[in-house]
Amino acid sequence: MSIARSKKISEEIKKIVSHIMMFEIKDPRVSKLSSITHVETTSDLRFTTIYISVFDPKHNVDVHIEGLNSAKGFIRKEIGKKLKLHYTPEPIFKPDHSIEHGMHINEILSGLDIKHDEEDIESSEEDSDEEV
């Protein structure tokens, strides 16, 4: 199967599972403040890896994935209904920490900017003192 077709199927699975997570799963372990960041489907359509990020500070991503794993059969059935494929891929849920990692890097960079700004202020004050 072509890579382009696999990517299209992955995008459709992303839309379907996002809708299911928002409106159809009633499990309290599955937070509504979550997002599917990326979906990878194998070329033989046997498995699809779904990467999940949770934005709700009250929910743990591992508990969220546990809730999704308990609904795995339902999710696979819904994917099969909506994507008329010969094989319905088995969903595999994994946490995606890239957003948290990006926020951590942003905090580090913000700290560097503050230090750099403080140095600029100090150097400009020293320059103004020397001119007097």
Descriptive terms for the model:
GMP Synthetase, Chain A, domain 3; single chain; 132 residues; 3 strands; three-stranded mixed sheet; alpha+beta; elongated; 2 domains
How are the secondary structure elements laid out?
Blueprint (H helix, E strand, L loop, with lengths): L2 H22 L9 E8 L5 E8 L6 H10 L1 H11 L7 E6 L2 H34 L1
Parallel strand pairs: 2-3
Antiparallel strand pairs: 1-2
Bulk shape:
elongated
Topology, number of strands: 3
Distance between the termini: 75 Å
Structural Rg: 23 Å
Write up this protein.
The protein has two domains: 3-96, GMP Synthetase, Chain A, domain 3; 98-132. Strands 1-2-3 form a three-stranded mixed sheet, with helices on one face. 58% of the residues lie in helices and 17% in strands. The model has no long low-confidence stretch (mean pLDDT 87). The protein has helices at residues 3-24, 61-70, 72-82, 98-131, and strands at 34-41, 47-54, 90-95. The protein has four helices and three strands, in the order H-E-E-H-H-E-H. The protein is an alpha+beta fold and 132 residues long.
Structure at a glance:
This protein has 132 residues and is of the alpha+beta class.
